[in-house]
Design brief:
The complex is a heterodimer of chains A (256) and B (375).
Chain A: E1 6-17, E2 20-31, E3 35-40, H1 46-54, E4 61-66, E5 69-70, H2 76-83, E6 86-89, H3 101-112, H4 117-130, H5 146-157, E7 164-168, H6 176-193, E8 196-200, H7 204-210, E9 213-218, E10 223-227, H8 230-236, H9 240-247, H10 252-255
Parallel strand pairs in A: 3-8, 3-9, 6-7, 7-8
Antiparallel strand pairs in A: 1-2, 1-4, 4-5, 9-10
Helix pairs in contact in A: 3-4, 3-5, 4-5, 8-9
Chain B: E1 4-9, E2 14-23, H1 33-40, E3 47-58, H2 60-75, E4 79-81, H3 87-98, H4 114-147, H5 155-165, H6 170-193, H7 201-239, H8 242-248, H9 253-291, H10 296-306, H11 309-335, H12 341-373
Parallel strand pairs in B: 2-3, 3-4
Antiparallel strand pairs in B: 1-2
Helix pairs in contact in B: 2-3, 4-9, 5-9, 6-7, 6-9, 7-9, 7-10, 7-11, 7-12, 9-10, 9-11, 11-12
The chains are: A alpha/beta (256), B alpha/beta (375).
Chain lengths: 256, 375
């Protein structure tokens, strides 16, 4: 598949918890090979949108289309098959605490491939090397640091060579250097594997370093205010709030 | 120096509030009621001014009081003159009012009447029962997948659950069953000796243990031990997003986390029950031999003759039912757990309570069924 063609299409998505609408009328397109940023202030529903995209929460309206195939309108089996083409890195890493790193990464391989145990071990070793954790195969998640957990989580997300990688606040809780290294890793993976990347974050440094497309959610308007390249949005988006967010400034409306 | 607050009304009808002494957290402080009373007087004061010439040390407790005064004054449309306050306090006060309170964010504590409370509780029970039924449905589907060879779980997990629920529970099951057997034997000996029928203590202990006590006691032990552990394990995984991580890989959490645990208890509870029955009979024998004038052979023969295959299988079937109920209560509460450390504790408690309630209710139902079937 060619880089630049539409990969994920969100159409008319409305998300609500009970009667409480979090976001409505979301429409955006993620192209193949994009690093797509979902950004916005705290509590605007970024992570909830991510949950809708990876199948953890159903939207009250609208659907996400992957290569034109509706995600939520599909049956359970098709949806499970689609999910297997995603990899997700959760905010806390969410490694299965009762398993070693090797077992964490190997689980999906064991379930969904016909590889032998030795072959799985090789793949696991390689994935851990990619994220800089060679030699930590037999450690349990509670024996390694927060940054290492994130990287191990990334190795697990990449276990099945997914077409799309989702990241929930990858730099949260990381020191600036680790955050930077993770950003670099994301870009390298995108470039070498052609993976489409969707990142939920509000770290401006990350947004500009890796993002080439984005959607901006606003908590007050309860909908998206902008989509497009974050750098272009910073320069010339007509909406004050969007520019202020991206320049770490105070919107003039509030400052008055 | 003690904190003090005095109100005086100036000739131009402004209220002068004089603050004196140390206004510090932990000190005894005067209330602001005098100020509020003055604000409500009619005619209302034209404004409020502060005099802090005598004010000593102060911290945020002073600012918190000032916030209350200012809020009240603003509500009554009375101008407030902050120039008399120390510079820092003025800034802190400004900061507190810089961001407008978000509309609708404040939750007002509402008085709930008795009937409303009962209604809400009832609705909650209904909702919980519906959740439990939905969970049962999912579990049935999961077992369906298991038998079609489509379910995903780790065999090593099952082995571990079997070990945790089985072998590691032996000491506690031994102790409790042995003591229960002894208690039954004591009661039996005391009562039956009166009729010269002391030997029937053997029947009493054997029948009670095999049919009723061993299944129910073992199940209650397992509800407190394993059911609670299941709820806590799965609940913690939920809080940690580990369950979400399974779901996003297309693995069903029920297949992966619940089914092997249910199977482990369905296998292990009958075995533990069998073992518990033996321990109970052993305890009874111990008491019987020491208090009755019978030989071991007599007692053993009496015991063997009293327990038929029906009683034994009936007891084991009960154990299967209780085992699945304990596992279901634990796992359902674990998966229904909220997103905080508190929630894990709550779902663990609820798992044990629900497990025991389910055990006792099903025990009554099964007993009635058994009687009608003549088992």
């Amino acid at each position: 598949m060619q880089v630049g063609t539409a990969h994920i299409d969100a159409r008319d998505i409305t998300i609500a918890y009970g009667d409480f609408v979090v976001q409505r009328d979301l429409n955006f397109t993620v192209n193949r090979g994009d690093v797509f940023i979902i950004m916005g202030g705290s509590g605007c529903g970024k992570s909830t949108l991510l949950k809708v995209m990876i199948g953890l929460k159903s939207p009250t309206q609208g659907d996400v289309f992957y290569e034109g195939v509706p995600f939520w309108a599909s049956g359970d089996d098709e949806r499970d098959a689609m999910k297997r083409r995603f990899g997700t890195l959760f905010q806390s890493g969410a490694l299965w605490s009762s398993m070693t790193l090797a077992e964490n990464i190997g689980l999906a391989l064991k379930q969904y491939t016909t590889l032998s145990d030795a072959e799985i071990r090789d793949v696991v070793n390689y994935k851990l090397m990619l994220v800089g954790l060679a030699g930590f195969e037999d450690y349990y998640p509670n024996e390694i640091s927060g940054g290492m957990k994130k990287r191990a989580g990334l190795a697990r997300a990449m276990a099945l060579d997914p077409e799309i990688l989702f990241f929930d606040e990858p730099s949260a809780g990381l020191d600036p250097i680790s955050a930077r290294l993770l950003d670099d890793l994301i870009l390298e993976l995108r470039d070498s594997l052609g993976t489409t990347v969707v990142v939920v974050t509000h770290e401006l440094a990350s947004i500009f370093a890796i993002g080439n497309n984005s959607v901006f959610l606003d908590a007050d308007a309860k909908t998206q205010l902008a989509t497009g390249d974050p750098k272009a949005l910073r320069e010339s988006h007509p909406n004050e709030i969007v520019r202020a967010f991206l320049t770490r400034g105070v919107p003039e409306a509030n400052a008055a | 120096m003690n904190a003090a607050l005095t109100c005086t009304t100036a000739p131009d009808n402004t209220l002068a509030v004089a603050l004196a002494g140390d206004w510090l957290l932990g000190n005894a402080l005067p209330g602001i009621e005098p100020v509020l009373e003055n604000l409500r007087k009619s005619p209302a004061p034209a404004g409020i001014a502060f005099d802090t010439a005598e004010l000593g040390d102060w911290d945020t407790v002073l600012v918190a009081r000032l916030v209350s005064i200012r809020r009240d004054a603003e509500a009554n449309g009375i101008a407030i003159d902050e120039s008399g306050l120390p510079e820092g306090a003025r800034q802190l006060l400004g900061l507190a009012f810089a961001v407008k309170e978000r509309e609708g964010a404040r939750r007002s504590a509402r008085d709930i009447g008795v009937f409303e409370g009962i209604g809400e509780k009832t609705l909650r029970v209904v909702a919980r029962s519906r959740d439990l039924l939905a969970f049962l449905g999912e579990l049935v589907l999961s077992f369906g997948r298991l038998f079609r060879g489509k379910a995903t779980y780790l065999r090593s997990d099952l082995v571990q659950y079997v070990q945790e629920a089985g072998a590691e529970a032996l000491p506690i099951v031994s102790l409790i069953s042995f003591l229960i057997g002894m208690i039954f034997a004591f009661v039996g000996v005391m009562q039956l000796e009166n009729f010269g029928a002391g030997i029937y203590t053997a029947d009493l202990v054997a029948v009670a243990m095999v049919r009723e006590m061993a299944p129910i006691m073992t199940a209650i032990i397992m509800a407190g031990r394993t059911g609670a552990a299941y709820a806590a394990q799965i609940g913690t995984m939920k809080v940690n997003e580990e369950v979400d991580a399974l779901t996003t890989l297309g693995m069903d959490p029920v297949d992966f986390l619940v089914t092997p645990r249910v199977i482990a208890l369905i296998i292990m509870l009958p075995m533990l029950t069998l073992y518990g029955s033996l321990m109970g009979i052993l305890g009874g024998t111990f008491v019987g031999l020491s208090m009755l004038d019978v030989s071991l052979v007599q007692y053993a023969t009496q015991t063997v003759n009293s327990v038929g295959l029906n009683s034994l299988l009936g007891g084991l079937f009960k154990a299967v039912v209780y085992g699945s109920l304990v596992a279901i209560a634990g796992c359902q509460q674990g998966l229904a757990c909220g997103n905080s450390a508190m929630a894990v504790g709550e779902s663990t408690t609820r798992a044990v309570v629900m497990g025991i309630v389910l055990i006792v209710v099903s025990a009554s139902i099964l007993t009635v069924i058994y009687i009608n079937l003549g088992i």
